[in-house]
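INFO  loader      accepted 1 record
INFO  loader      residues=75
INFO  predictor   begin
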Amino acid sequence: AWYLQKASGKERDQRFSYGYGRLSLLAALINGVVLLAGSIVVIVHVIPRLFEPQIVDATGMFWLALLGIAFNGFA
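INFO  predictor   done
INFO  writer      dumping tokens
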């Protein structure tokens, strides 16, 4: 999507007489499809866990949160 967005700024040429401006719409479509597919995968995995909850390993989440805070602090 990033490549298509960058390419959409190119001027017109022999192949595309109106330019490449519509490539940004294709990039948006690709982003939307990827986000929708990811959302569906998450929902499919979450629904069974709603009916059969599992114990969460909070130790890993704690260290990941500390790592995120450290990176945000340096940024």
